Amino acid sequence: MKNLMIDLETLSRKLYGVVTQIGAVYFNEKGEIGDKFLVNISIQSSLDIGFKIDGETLKWWFERTNLITWLNNTITITKALAMFRDFCYKNKKAKVWSHYFDIYMLEGLYAKIEQKLPFSYRNWRDIRTLVDLVGLKIKKEKGDPKTHNALDDCIYQVEYVTKALRMIKGGYNEKEI
User: Fold this and answer.
1) Which of 4, 10, 14, 147 is the most buried (most CB within 10 A)?
2) Do β-strands 33-41 and 19-27 pair in parallel, antiparallel, or remain unpaired?
3) In angstroms, rounded to a whole number, what is the distance separating the alpha carbons of residues 118 and 106?
4) Which of 120, 133, 121, 131 is nearest to 162 (CA)?
5) Could you give the strand order of the β-sheet that contains 95-98, starting from the edge strand earlier in sequence?
6) Cβ distance 12 to 25 under 8 Å?
7) Any idea what DSSP says for residue 73?
8) Domains of the chain, earliest start first
């Protein structure tokens, strides 16, 4: 699998905000899913090393408690980042797909523990730029189609990224998913 999709769930939209969940999947250009990764991160372990919670984001989650999947089976932030690094090292040449926000937050996490991202900046690809360039419209018939579980959201994002990639290569004509 030559591509890696990443998604985070957070308690802040600011740098050095608490990240509660990291999800990732390897995938190919046909949209087939390979190895999966999901960890729930202890909020307290993040607070202990100086990460912050944003009241506005916390309020957003309190209004959607049915979406919270990151409170159980948590591990420390340092262990989560070490596990994520190992997962990324399965294919160091993979193209890494995400929204810019997720890379921004990951970069802050690794910087805080004085480590580099587990992939080269040369391999990172932005989902929004791709979708915008091909003119793909994502339907939102019943509100937000994302579950806000980082792994589920990765799989959802793979669906429209692979469609956009096929549009670029001439193998897909629909402009809406």
Assistant:
1) 4
2) antiparallel
3) 10
4) 131
5) 74-75, 33-41, 19-27, 3-10, 95-98, 124-126
6) no
7) S
8) 3-169 (3.30.420.10)
Cα distance between residue 66 and residue 135, in whole Å = 32
DSSP annotation of 94 reads P
- The structure tokens listed for 116 are 């580099």
Categorise residue 16: left if φ over 0, alpha if ψ from -120 to 50, beta otherwise.
left
Tokens of 61: 């989650």
Tens digit of each residue's pLDDT (9 = 90 or more) over 17-75: 999 999 999 999 999 999 999 999 999 999 999 999 999 999 999 999 988 999 999 99
What does pTM read for this prediction?
0.91
Rounded to 5°, angle at Cα 64 from 140 and 10: 90
